[in-house]
Design a protein that fits this description.
The chain is of the alpha+beta class. It has helices at residues 11-21, 33-39, 41-45, 101-117, 147-155, 247-260, 276-283; strands at 2-5, 56-65, 68-80, 83-96, 122-125, 142-143, 159-169, 184-190, 198-205, 208-217, 230-238, 266-272, 288-299. Strands 1, 2, 3, 4, 5, 6, 7, 8, 9, 10, 11, 12 and 13 form a 13-stranded mixed beta sheet that branches.
C-alpha cells in the first residue's frame, strides 16, 4: 500500500471513489469530475476558494493498493472565529472503502502528522463551515451513512462536539393553518444556482416583521437533476414575544405552499441535535428523520 499526495492526475479515480463513499448519504448526489476539481483547487494551486470552503495550507492524501484508491483525506488549517492567530487543523473529508480499515488508518495518521507539523493542537473533522458544497445540504457534518468513518475517528480519539439532524418530507402536500393573529406575508424570490428560485417569506403583524422563513433550492448544492426537486429550509425564525402561537407553523406551511407552486416536490429541514423544541415541531408536521450528522474534534497534548 502506498500513501501519496493528491495530484490532478488522480481526479478521475478520486471522483469515482467519493461517489461510492457517499452513495448512502442522504442528499449526496453523484458529483461530476469538474465539480470535485473545484473543491480541490486549494490543494493544487495553494490558493483557497473561500466560497468553496477553502482553507490555508490545504493538502490531501490517498492510499493506493493494487492500483486501486482505497482511502482519501483532505485537510487544511482553519481558524477559531475570525482569529487566524489560533490555527485549527481541519479534516474536510475522510473516506475509506469498507473493509480497508488499514488504508483509512494510514491516511488519517499521515494527515495528523502533517497538521501537527503546522503547530495545531486541535483538529476539527467535518465542520459544517468547511463541507464540500456538494456534500449533503447546508449545515451537514459527518453523516450516519458514513458510520465506518465515524468509527475510525472515534477509535483514534476524536469526540463528538456538535451535531445536526436532517428531516425530509417527500412528495409533500400542505394546507396552511392560520394563526389566531392577523398575520400577513411578503414573498421574495431570488434565482441562485438551482433550476428553481430560492424563497424568503416574511411574516408581518400590524405592518411589522415578526418572522422569516428562508428556503433554497437543492440545486444550490448539487447540479444533479434529482436535487432540483428539493427545497431546503435553512432558517425559520419568529420573534420571541410571538412564539408559541402557531405563527412558525403557519409561516413554514405558507412557504412550502409557495414553493410547491413553482415546482418543488420534496422538502428537507434540519436543526441542532439538542434543539428539541424544533425537532419536536418538525417531526410532528410532516417531516421524518433521514440522517444524523456530526462534527468531531481531537485535542493534542
Amino acid at each position: 500500500m502506498n500513501i501519496v499526495q493528491y495530484t490532478p492526475k488522480l481526479q478521475s479515480a478520486l471522483t469515482a471513489f467519493y461517489n461510492r463513499q457517499t452513495v448512502n448519504v442522504p442528499h449526496c448526489y453523484p458529483v461530476q469530475e469538474k465539480e470535485f476539481a473545484l473543491a480541490m483547487v486549494g490543494v493544487t494551486t495553494g490558493k483557497a476558494d473561500i466560497q468553496e470552503g477553502g482553507l490555508d495550507f490545504e493538502t490531501a492524501f490517498v492510499a493506493i493498493e493494487n492500483r486501486t484508491l482505497q482511502a482519501f483525506i483532505h485537510v487544511g488549517i482553519g481558524q477559531v472565529g475570525d482569529n487566524r492567530e489560533i490555527p485549527v487543523g481541519v479534516i474536510r473529508f475522510l473516506g475509506y472503502e469498507r473493509g480497508a480499515r488499514r488504508a483509512g488508518q494510514a491516511v488519517l495518521e499521515k494527515a495528523e502528522t502533517y497538521l501537527e507539523a503546522c503547530n495545531v493542537a486541535h483538529i476539527d473533522a467535518f465542520s459544517q463551515d468547511c463541507r464540500y458544497r456538494f456534500y449533503h445540504f447546508e449545515n451537514a457534518g459527518l453523516s450516519d451513512g458514513l458510520d465506518h468513518v465515524q468509527a475510525l475517528l472515534g477509535f483514534n480519539g476524536y469526540q463528538y462536539c456538535s451535531g445536526e439532524v436532517f428531516l425530509d418530507w417527500e412528495n409533500y402536500s400542505v394546507t396552511p393553518v392560520p394563526s389566531s393573529l392577523p398575520i400577513t406575508f411578503s414573498v421574495d424570490w431570488e434565482q441562485g444556482r438551482g433550476q428553481r428560485p430560492n424563497c424568503t417569506v416574511r411574516a408581518h403583524l400590524d405592518g411589522e416583521k415578526i418572522g422569516e422563513c428562508e428556503s433554497v433550492s437543492g440545486g444550490e448544492f448539487s447540479s444533479h437533476p434529482d436535487a432540483q426537486d428539493w427545497l431546503h429550509t435553512t432558517g425559520l425564525d419568529i420573534d420571541d414575544p410571538y412564539q408559541g402561537q402557531g405563527i412558525g407553523r403557519y409561516l413554514l406551511q405558507y412557504s412550502l405552499q409557495e414553493m410547491c407552486q413553482v415546482g418543488y416536490r420534496h422538502a428537507t429541514i434540519s436543526t441542532d441535535w439538542e434543539n428539541y423544541r424544533a425537532f419536536l415541531f418538525y417531526s410532528n408536521c410532516g417531516y421524518r428523520v433521514v440522517d444524523w450528522t456530526y462534527e468531531l474534534e481531537k485535542h493534542f497534548d
